[in-house]
DNA sequence: AGCCAGGCAGAGA
DNA sequence: TCTCTGCATGGC
């Protein structure tokens, strides 16, 4: 077996790798050797942050590494983005605490399938389900970072594969009623009835409608895919955490209709609302003790 | 033990 | 259009 292992490094400003990989936008990065172990496409990747220096190892031929910088979104000007956030106390606390949190550019299929697992599940469980799914149905990677035993180091299962797996088999990955949604969605994508790669080009409203036509995909899951994988950085997914915060902060604690809440979220957070949302989400969960990793801004 | 989890779909009002 | 409920499974 080929065991090529390539290494690179780069200075990256305004990056908190832990916040980026452990903020609930992606589910398959695991702490390892003082860094993070994960899979990008068909490559096994290990990342470690040393101050403003980002070190990376990858299996296989990494080429010019542009795939990695694209994935990490290091070209986005984070300071400029954060400057567009509305100045309310909660968001200011969130940006102070989570400084360096970046949004990734994920593969749309992996992102869609992942968030299909997210409904009424805690993040730890989503991670568990996806590891099981990848271990059982993902293609083995050609190469691996040697000497490690981290779980689930396989490629994310392709839609064509999942479309042929019996639903009962998917349920064995502990995904419960979500199995049918995943199976049916995999079938639509595998059949070519929905081209995920086209979503960034068709405009927000069309892209959102196409996603919401999928079984098991409502507004929240669609918005996650639009934000995390399709480049629509203005989209604000409203989940239970964000919803609670919005109610308490801007609606005096009472319960506005879902439509009112969405309309508010859509306009209040500005052109990079999705970014603002992720800062808010991560901060709220960190404050509630739900985040294992320590924000770099507080590590001193 | 009981409530809740990065929701969604279908039913009934 | 709005609200309510069932859904699998497990963390806390």
Give the secondary structure arrangement, pairings included:
Blueprint lengths: L4 E7 L5 H5 L8 E3 L2 E6 L2 E8 L2 E7 L6 H7 L5 H6 L5 H9 L10 H9 L6 H15 L21 H4 L4 H9 L2 H13 L13 H9 L6 H10 L11 H11 L7 H11 L4 H15 L8 H4 L1
Antiparallel strand pairs: 1-5, 2-3, 3-4, 4-5
The structure holds a DNA duplex (13 and 12 nucleotides).
The pLDDT mean sits at 94
Strand order of the largest sheet: 1-5-4-3-2
Q: Give the topology string: H per helix, E per strand.
A: EHEEEEHHHHHHHHHHHHHH
Report the radius of gyration as a whole number of Å.
19 Å
Oligomer: single chain
Percent helix, as a range, is 40-55%
**How much beta, percentage-wise?**
5-15%
Number of discrete helical segments = 15
Distance between the termini: 43 Å
Give the biggest sheet.
Answer: 5 strands, antiparallel
Q: Which structural category fits the helices and strands? A: alpha+beta
Number of strands: 5
Overall spatial form:
globular
Uncertain stretches of 5 or more adjacent residues: none
């Amino acid at each position: 077996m080929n065991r090529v292992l390539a290494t690179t490094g780069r200075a990256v400003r305004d990056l908190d790798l832990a916040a980026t990989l452990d903020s609930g936008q992606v589910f398959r990065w695991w702490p390892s050797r003082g860094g993070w172990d994960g899979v990008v496409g068909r490559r096994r990747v290990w990342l470690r942050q040393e101050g403003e220096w980002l070190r990376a190892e990858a299996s296989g031929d990494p080429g010019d590494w542009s795939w990695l910088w694209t994935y990490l979104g290091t070209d986005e000007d984070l300071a400029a983005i954060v400057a567009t956030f509305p100045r309310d106390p909660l968001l200011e606390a969130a940006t102070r605490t989570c400084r360096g949190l970046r949004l990734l550019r994920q593969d749309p299929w992996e992102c869609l399938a992942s968030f299909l697992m997210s409904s009424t599940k805690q993040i730890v469980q989503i991670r568990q389900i996806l590891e099981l799914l990848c271990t059982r149905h993902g293609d083995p990677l050609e190469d691996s970072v040697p000497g490690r035993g981290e779980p689930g180091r396989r490629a994310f299962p392709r839609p064509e594969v999942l479309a042929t797996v019996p639903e009962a088999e998917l349920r064995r990955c502990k995904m419960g009623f979500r199995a049918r949604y995943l199976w049916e969605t995999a079938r639509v994508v595998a059949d070519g009835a929905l081209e995920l790669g086209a979503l960034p080009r068709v405009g927000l409203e069309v892209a959102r409608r196409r996603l919401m036509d999928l079984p098991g995909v409502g507004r929240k899951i669609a918005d996650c895919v639009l934000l995390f994988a399709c480049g629509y950085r203005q989209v604000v997914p409203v989940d239970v955490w964000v919803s609670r915060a919005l109610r308490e902060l801007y609606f005096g604690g009472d319960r506005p209709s879902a439509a009112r809440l969405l309309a508010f979220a859509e306009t209040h957070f500005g052109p990079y609302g999705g970014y603002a949302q992720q800062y808010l989400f991560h901060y709220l969960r960190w404050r509630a003790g739900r985040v294992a990793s320590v924000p770099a801004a507080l590590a001193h």
